[in-house]
Amino acid sequence: MALLSRQPWLVATGLLVPLLTLASPGWLKLDAVPPAWSVLWLLPWALSEGRLAGAAAGLGLGLLLDGLHPGTVSLVPGLVLLGWWWGRMGRKAPLIQRSFSLGLLALVGTALLNGSLMLQWALLSWRGAASLQGSVEGLAGGAEALRQAGPSAALVAMPLWRWEDLAQVGLQVLLAQTLLTALLAPMLCSLQLIFWRQVGAGWRGLSV
Amino acid sequence: MAPVRLLRVGALLPLLRVWPWLLVLLALVAVRLSKGALLSDAYGLLSRPFWPGSAQQEWISAAQRLGDRARLEQLERENRRLRGLLDLPAVQGRRLQAAVISRQPGGWWQQLLLGKGSLQGVGVGDAIVAPGGLIGLVASTTPTTSTVRLLSDPGSRVGVWVGRSRQQGLLSGIGTARPLLRFLEKDPDARPGDVIFTSPASTLVPPNLPVGVIQRINADADPAPEALVQLSAPADAVDWVQVLLP
């Protein structure tokens, strides 16, 4: 029942996440990378409401955010896992909700979320490279002369992130977003924790 | 000796009388030899207050622009006719102005959100140009907005060619501000400073839109030579763009 009474606030604040993602101001970016607003919203919610509510919110938020960008990779796995993990952590260790701990959790969570994206892209790149290599070898028919004739258009059209770009640019994006999110988390997540606790009529009586 | 000296002085007397005329003659010869330089300079100096003013210069510039526009339209008509004869895709004609309402030039997805959507005729795959050239293609649309995948996005692939040598290549985003141009030939005739345009052979984008300038070439790249391209349109700074409607 408590969760139901918080539904309007849940929906209203949850909808703010994609809006903030779209409207991230330039001065709040590091190396043109915005903070992970999804992490900043999900962390206090999951800590306050538990693993099921956290995982469900992660699923909903991931679906919302996936709609904002084209492509095959998804934020859903990372956010669901984070919601579940933080939900378990909130129930088991109330003291984790101090400001420094919130920053640390946001740092680890953002790194994991970006890591899940990198993993998906790496898998896609690996599958794409394997299939293209097979098709090129099939076209060449094993003839060395055909292989030396020039690069295949299919091979140079290899899609999405390459390994070397993931290692360089991807790591740069991961570090920038992780650092920025961890810096914002102590303030924003503490305020949200207080808010969720007030709305939830003092859930478990924990202090921030 | 004295009569001889008097004779010589007497012979010079007429010359002494006409020396001003000799100077005039010398001046005229100088004018002749300098092709009238003194006269022209003097005329220019004296007539400077009566030279054509800036207003007349503007008229001429306006006439020049009008002539250029008419010539451009004529060339475009001719281009359309020839492309029609060769069964090549038509060059986009109508342009729709759209405001950039959200920009994400960095991060995992590099995209813009425009304030015009399918209700205004924007479709998936439409080319987006900004001052400077092409910046991306429409990746998805809603009734009132459209998402543009920037050329720097890792999912972006656009067929281009080098304007000078007509070497074809594929421009691929790699997540940085400078996308990667992969040539389709092993020995491309390209060098830093060459301007890149969209390829007329591409079926995805209108031909010959300026894209950027080659900044660095890696001729030893495998499987094909690669070049880093500095985009000519600043996607992270534009507030208004044009959608090229089919």
Fold topology:
The complex is a heterodimer of chains A (208) and B (246).
Chain A: H1 2-5, H2 7-22, H3 37-49, H4 51-66, H5 76-92, H6 99-140, H7 144-148, H8 153-156, H9 163-199
Helix pairs in contact in A: 2-4, 3-4, 3-5, 3-6, 3-9, 4-5, 5-6, 6-9
Chain B: H1 2-17, H2 19-33, H3 37-47, H4 54-85, E1 95-104, E2 111-114, E3 127-130, E4 133-141, E5 146-150, E6 157-162, E7 168-172, E8 180-183, E9 195-198, E10 210-218, E11 226-231, E12 240-244
Antiparallel strand pairs in B: 1-2, 1-12, 2-5, 3-4, 3-12, 4-5, 6-7, 6-9, 7-8, 8-11, 9-10, 10-11
Q: Key features?
A:
heterodimer; A: 208 residues; globular; B: 246 residues; alpha+beta; Thrombin, subunit H; 6-stranded antiparallel barrel; 12 strands; 30% helix; elongated
Explain this structure.
The complex is a heterodimer of chains A (208) and B (246). With 208 residues, chain A is mostly helical. Chain A has one domain. Chain A has nine helices and no strands. Chain A has helices at residues 2-5, 7-22, 37-49, 51-66, 76-92, 99-140, 144-148, 153-156, 163-199. The longest helix of chain A has 42 residues, at 99-140. The radius of gyration of chain A is 21 Å and the shape is globular. With 246 residues, chain B is of the alpha+beta class. Chain B folds into two domains: 2-50, no CATH class; 93-246, Thrombin, subunit H (Beta Barrel), CATH 2.40.10.340. Chain B is 30% helix and 29% strand. Chain B is built from four helices and twelve strands. In chain B, the strands form two sheets. A six-stranded antiparallel β-barrel of chain B has the order 1-2-5-4-3-12. In chain B, strands 6-7-8-11-10-9 form a six-stranded antiparallel barrel. The longest helix of chain B is centred in the first third of the chain and has 32 residues, at 54-85. Chain B is elongated, with a radius of gyration of 33 Å. The model of chain B has no long low-confidence stretch (mean pLDDT 84). Chain A binds chain B through residues 22-24, 29, 31-34, 68-71, 73, 114, 117, 121, 150-153, 155-157, 159-162, 165, 169-170, 173, 176-177, and chain B through 101-102, 104-109, 111, 113, 139-140, 147, 149, 154-155, 157, 170, 172, 174-176, 182, 184-186, 223-224, 236.
